[in-house]
């Protein structure tokens, strides 16, 4: 007998997150009959009875890891079952989503620590506790559908107790694929010198850390190297062994302990507590930790423990841990136990190991809460998707991103999936990861690209890989892609009109064959014109100029008519041959890069003039110096003369003249303000002339929080689009590339 | 002495007496037999052996400055063509030489270049058997361009080719890398570099003969000219269909070359050489090949730099001093900065 019912379709991130048992509970509470199932489009529900507030509750009370993009309800006629049941999945793969890895939920933390109602429970002290609201997902996934058999948990047979929880729709572990307990799940051990240390693994590791040892810890997406952040000896040893003299270390501590080392704003707390559990850059409290944690910086990158193992370890250790990625310099993080023993043995005194394999290498994501920025898009944020702006069709496109911060992007069905951070693609293993990621994301999302988008730079490895794919290739100019990435994440419609984009960057190939990186572009997804730019200077030594700030300083001093100062400033360096090479045009391409101007100014203020020990060091230290000088705003450098070419020469001359009297902090701050204002003035003019509808801020230099703030201040009163979800650096490039390629395929008027 | 001028004029290319004087007094010295006609007539005996094959190659040479520490354009023109033949397994025998001369070029310079060619050819055991000269107006070429072609014989049973390289084969170079490229850069007056660097320019026919005698199973060799070691290895990896792995710390490099590269931001792996080659030999013959090289002056600095490997097909990877590995690309046009 047929009855009138309602058929509901839920789209979004609704699989593998406890959505069906949630629907089951809602239906039962309301005495409704029917069924719920997973299928390629998400979750389907059929309800019979008086549905009342069911749809409202569906949205309001959804499980923590669920994200509902759409709920569609329509009446239908059918045979009503006697009760409400969860029925088997229908169809195959397509369009379904895999949830990102999520930090342990409060229940699982309490259960692992044996606290509250869980005291003496069977998972007290267990390092692999998880449920449908938390735990590993993408990092353990080997294939679809997301079932235990397709994860790295496949080798662990569930015990009867876990099986009962897994099969009980009322349990928070109903269909939690990585469900485990001490009887049936993965185990953790601590080893030193190739032998397992007897006793409690976590306790032994904590003892080692307290004794100043460095240990490798296997996590969700790879190994970390850890030591006591308060132990100067351990910090020095770690820096020496990892050959990492100055790059800041990430820190991990319980929230209560973080308050003693950083200033925690509410947005920062929210970012830290989110399921993604990223590293969040927060203002460091002066003197809280030894300088060696983050030399020359005013922020620390901190994160909360995000697995039960981390929670147990921090309970036992009780302090702040350095948690830096476990890799050889230039290589991706180590993920396998044997690989860790082979490669990390020289770095560490012990290993906190476990036997749950890692299927995907995922670094920690890195964010800033104020201003909201994503510096590295990785663990906990992938494979999430973002919606495409209005006007983009259904084209399937794969974009392969940049060179130094590899990341790919797939678009399909009006959504974009920005892949995880892959590192510098010249690194052999990073390139292997890149190739794997291309195949992997394509397979997982049943993606059949009709076009591949790449950077126009022929020397990028990603570009070369794209050209070898046998698909039509869309070559995209680097800074156009930055512009489009920012438009895209702000849902700027395809027909939304032109914007004035301030793109401050390292170097990217421009259509005139020079290297751009300090630009005001007027454009949209379909095209752009270069309206203003930094006066170009040679980059003597090519990429070497990006590692040795003095090279840029010499060129900018020469332009300012202060060449004579260069000899004194950089005595002992090859100033004359450098100039000769620039003059003769031997490996000295012209560039309007703002990043290299930062380097030049940094060198003039004594910041690593001869060489950087990590990418971006000079600019980061200059920013730190300027933030310390924010209160001393009295020094103003001369405004760049009007016109499309922003010439830093008068600014450099004034900076040199002021150097004797002014504090370096004040000079660094004045430079930031000069740069922000020079570019803002040009962008403002485009908006005020009615040529641009908004201003976009993009490019790697906008990772600089101070410059970001000063630019917003200088643009006050104008609509400004910034990066909050996608990196402003080359990690976001692929999104822009994909959108530009899609725009080329979309109908509609050509850009003017 | 019929030739009175000290500079080349357009009349030296006019086909008249001036041209004949120039050829007879300057260029004939290099040719064997002297007074040869437009066409070389060669005895076929060397080719008569059953199974022997003819190797034939050509190359044009342009270099600034024309004379540089350790060589000149003439020396390069002989060595380059001899080396092209030698790395293919051929015994170099005969060369042709064609000259394009810019009006105004010093005749004394031409004499030096030609003498240098004669010297180098004699040392390499080849004869320059035919040639040509042309004079062009100012600006139509840069002082002097030289084209040499070479003929050699590949003995029966010898088969060298990049396609024969298999995983496990060992890569050996015959000396420090990049001396030529760095010396040329340093010799450019406008770069303000002062070094004692000399070009590595050398003919490698005898060295190859010794290597092949010591390591008859040698698979392939390449001279490391334009694009340097990196380009040669990439070519071999691609053709062989395997990967190549080299180790940074095994690369023979002179400190001065490293210094020049640091200042100019260049990678010595891409610097040109004119007397260097890489040879791939089966592991079992590597030691013999190495000592054969080291026994000769032009191989004194020979070193094992890596090997062909399974995996990363077509790709060259270098283990860095820090234990990581980086991809060593084929040079794509001009190397533009990529750091963003
Ligand atoms: Fe960029
Ligand atoms: Mg040739
Ligand atoms: Zn949980
Ligand atoms: Zn169990």
TrEMBL record, chain A:
Its EC number is 6.2.-.-. Residues 199-380 form the YrdC-like domain. Keywords: Hydrolase, Ligase, Metal-binding, Transferase, Zinc, Zinc-finger. Pfam families: Acylphosphatase, HypF_C, HypF_C_2, Sua5_yciO_yrdC, zf-HYPF. Coiled coil: none annotated. One of its GO terms (molecular function) is acylphosphatase activity. The keyword Zinc-finger applies. It catalyses: an acyl phosphate + H2O = a carboxylate + phosphate + H(+); C-terminal L-cysteinyl-[HypE protein] + carbamoyl phosphate + ATP + H2O = C-terminal S-carboxamide-L-cysteinyl-[HypE protein] + AMP + phosphate + diphosphate + H(+). Pathway: Protein modification; [NiFe] hydrogenase maturation. SUPFAM superfamilies: Acylphosphatase/BLUF domain-like (SSF54975), YrdC/RibB (SSF55821). The keyword Metal-binding applies. Residues 5-88 form the Acylphosphatase-like domain. GO terms for biological process: protein maturation. It is an enzyme of class 6 (ligase). Involved in the maturation of [NiFe] hydrogenases. Along with HypE, it catalyzes the synthesis of the CN ligands of the active site iron of [NiFe]-hydrogenases. HypF functions as a carbamoyl transferase using carbamoylphosphate as a substrate and transferring the carboxamido moiety in an ATP-dependent reaction to the thiolate of the C-terminal cysteine of HypE yielding a protein-S-carboxamide. This is Carbamoyltransferase HypF. The lineage of its organism: Bacteria, Pseudomonadati, Pseudomonadota, Alphaproteobacteria, Rhodobacterales.
From TrEMBL, chain B:
Residues 37-154 form the PurM-like N-terminal domain. One of its GO terms (biological process) is protein maturation. It comes from the Bacteria. InterPro entries: HypE, PurM-like_C_dom, PurM-like_C_sf, PurM-like_N, PurM-like_N_sf. CDD domains: HypE. Residues 166-317 form the PurM-like C-terminal domain. It holds the Pfam family AIRS_C. Belongs to the HypE family. This is Hydrogenase expression/formation protein HypE. It comes from Rhodobacter xanthinilyticus.
């Amino acid at each position: 007998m047929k009855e009138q019912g309602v058929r509901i379709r839920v789209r979004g991130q609704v699989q593998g997150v406890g959505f069906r048992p949630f629907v089951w509970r809602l239906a039962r509470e309301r005495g409704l009959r029917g069924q719920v199932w997973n299928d390629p489009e998400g979750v389907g529900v059929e309800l019979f009875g008086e549905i009342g507030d069911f749809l409202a509750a569906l949205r309001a009370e959804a499980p923590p890891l669920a994200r509902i993009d759409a709920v569609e309800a329509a009446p239908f006629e059918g045979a009503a079952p006697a009760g409400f049941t969860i029925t088997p999945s229908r169809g195959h793969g397509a369009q379904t989503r895999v949830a990102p890895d999520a930090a342990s939920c409060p229940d699982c933390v309490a259960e692992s620590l044996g606290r509250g109602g869980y005291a003496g429970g069977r998972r007290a002290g267990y390092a692999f506790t998880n449920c449908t609201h938390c735990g590993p997902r993408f990092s353990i996934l080997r294939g679809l559908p997301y079932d235990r058999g397709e994860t790295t948990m496949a080798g662990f047979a569930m015990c009867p107790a876990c099986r009962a929880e897994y099969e009980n729709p009322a349990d928070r572990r109903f269909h939690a694929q990585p469900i485990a307990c001490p009887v049936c799940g993965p185990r953790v051990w601590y080893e030193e010198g190739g032998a397992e240390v007897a006793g409690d693994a976590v306790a032994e590791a904590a003892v080692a850390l307290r004794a100043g040892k460095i240990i490798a810890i296997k996590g969700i997406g790879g190994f970390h190297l850890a030591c006591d952040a308060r132990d100067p000896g351990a910090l020095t040893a770690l820096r020496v062994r990892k050959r990492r003299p100055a790059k800041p270390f990430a820190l991990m501590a319980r929230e209560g302990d973080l308050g003693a080392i950083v200033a925690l704003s509410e947005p920062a707390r929210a970012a830290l507590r989110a399921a993604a559990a990223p590293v969040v850059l927060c203002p460091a409290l002066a003197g809280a930790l030894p300088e060696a944690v983050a030399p020359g910086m005013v922020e620390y990158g901190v994160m909360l423990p995000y697995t039960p193992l981390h929670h147990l370890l921090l309970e036992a250790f009780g302090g702040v841990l350095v948690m830096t990625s476990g890799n050889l310099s230039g290589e991706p993080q180590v993920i396998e136990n044997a690989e860790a023993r082979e490669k990390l043995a020289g770095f560490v005194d012990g290993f906190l190991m476990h036997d749950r394999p890692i299927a995907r290498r995922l670094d920690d994501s890195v964010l800033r809460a104020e201003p909201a920025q994503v510096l590295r898009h990785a663990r906990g944020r992938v494979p999430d998707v973002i919606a495409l702006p209005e006007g983009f069709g259904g084209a399937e496109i794969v974009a392969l991103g940049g060179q130094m911060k590899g990341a790919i992007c797939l678009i399909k069905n009006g959504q974009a999936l920005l892949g995880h951070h892959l590192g510098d693609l010249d690194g052999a293993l990073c390139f292997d990861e890149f190739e794997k990621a291309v195949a992997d994301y394509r397979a997982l999302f049943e993606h059949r690209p009709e076009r591949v988008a790449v950077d126009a730079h022929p020397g990028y490895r990603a570009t070369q890989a794209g050209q070898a794919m046998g698909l039509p290739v869309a070559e995209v100019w680097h800074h156009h892609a930055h512009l489009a990435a920012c438009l895209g994440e702000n849902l700027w419609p395809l027909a939304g009109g032109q914007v004035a984009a301030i793109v401050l960057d390292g170097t990217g190939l421009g259509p005139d064959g020079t290297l751009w990186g300090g630009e005001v572009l007027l454009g949209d997804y379909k095209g752009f014109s270069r309206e203003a730019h930094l006066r170009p200077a040679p980059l003597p030594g090519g990429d070497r100029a990006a590692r040795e700030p003095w090279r840029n300083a010499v060129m900018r001093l020469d332009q300012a008519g202060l060449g004579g100062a260069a000899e004194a400033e950089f005595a002992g360096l090859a100033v004359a041959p450098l100039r000769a090479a620039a003059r003769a045009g031997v490996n000295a391409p012209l560039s309007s890069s703002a990043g290299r101007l930062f380097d030049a100014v940094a060198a003039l203020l004594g910041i690593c003039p001869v060489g950087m020990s990590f990418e971006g060091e000079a600019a980061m230290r200059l920013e730190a110096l300027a933030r310390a000088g924010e209160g001393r705003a009295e020094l103003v450098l001369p405004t760049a003369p009007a016109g499309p070419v922003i010439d830093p020469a008068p600014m450099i001359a004034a900076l040199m003249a002021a150097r004797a009297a002014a504090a370096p902090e004040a000079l660094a701050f004045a430079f930031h303000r000069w740069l922000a204002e020079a570019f803002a003035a040009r962008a403002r003019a485009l908006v005020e002339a009615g040529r641009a509808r908004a201003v976009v801020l993009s490019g790697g230099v906008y990772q600089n929080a101070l410059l970001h703030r000063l630019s917003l201040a200088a643009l006050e009163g104008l609509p400004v689009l910034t990066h909050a979800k996608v990196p402003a650096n080359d990690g976001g490039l692929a999104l822009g590339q994909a959108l530009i390629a899609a725009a080329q395929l979309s109908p509609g008027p050509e850009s003017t | 002495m019929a030739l009175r001028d000290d500079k080349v004029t357009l009349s030296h290319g006019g086909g008249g007496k001036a041209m004949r004087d120039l050829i007879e007094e300057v260029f004939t010295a290099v040719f064997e037999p002297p007074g040869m006609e437009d066409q070389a007539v060669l005895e076929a005996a060397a080719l008569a052996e059953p199974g022997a094959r003819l190797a034939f190659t050509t190359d044009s040479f342009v270099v600034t400055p024309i004379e540089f520490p350790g060589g000149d354009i003439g020396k390069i023109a002989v060595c380059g063509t001899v080396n092209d033949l030698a790395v293919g397994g051929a015994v170099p025998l005969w060369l042709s030489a064609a000259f394009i001369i810019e009006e105004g070029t010093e005749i004394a310079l031409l004499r030096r270049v030609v003498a240098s060619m004669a010297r180098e050819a004699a040392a390499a055991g080849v004869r320059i058997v035919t040639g040509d000269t042309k004079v062009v107006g100012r600006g139509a070429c840069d002082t002097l361009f030289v084209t040499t072609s070479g003929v050699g014989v590949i003995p029966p049973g010898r088969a060298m080719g990049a396609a024969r390289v298999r995983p496990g084969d060992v890569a050996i170079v015959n000396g420090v890398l990049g001396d030529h490229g760095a010396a040329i850069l340093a010799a450019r007056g406008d770069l303000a570099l002062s070094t004692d660097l000399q070009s590595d320019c050398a003919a490698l026919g005898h060295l190859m003969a010794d290597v092949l005698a010591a390591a008859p199973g040698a698979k392939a060799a390449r001279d490391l000219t334009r694009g340097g070691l990196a380009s040669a290895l990439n070519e071999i990896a691609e053709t062989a269909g395997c990967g190549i792995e080299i180790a940074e710390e095994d690369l023979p490099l002179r400190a001065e070359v490293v210094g020049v590269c640091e200042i100019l931001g260049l990678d010595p792996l891409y610097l040109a050489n004119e007397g260097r080659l890489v040879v791939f030999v089966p592991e079992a013959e590597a030691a013999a090949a190495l000592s054969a090289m080291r026994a000769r002056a032009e191989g004194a600095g020979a070193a094992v730099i890596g090997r062909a490997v399974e995996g990363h097909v077509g790709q060259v990877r270098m283990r860095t001093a820090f234990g990581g590995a980086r991809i060593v690309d084929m040079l794509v046009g001009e190397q533009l900065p990529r750091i963003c």
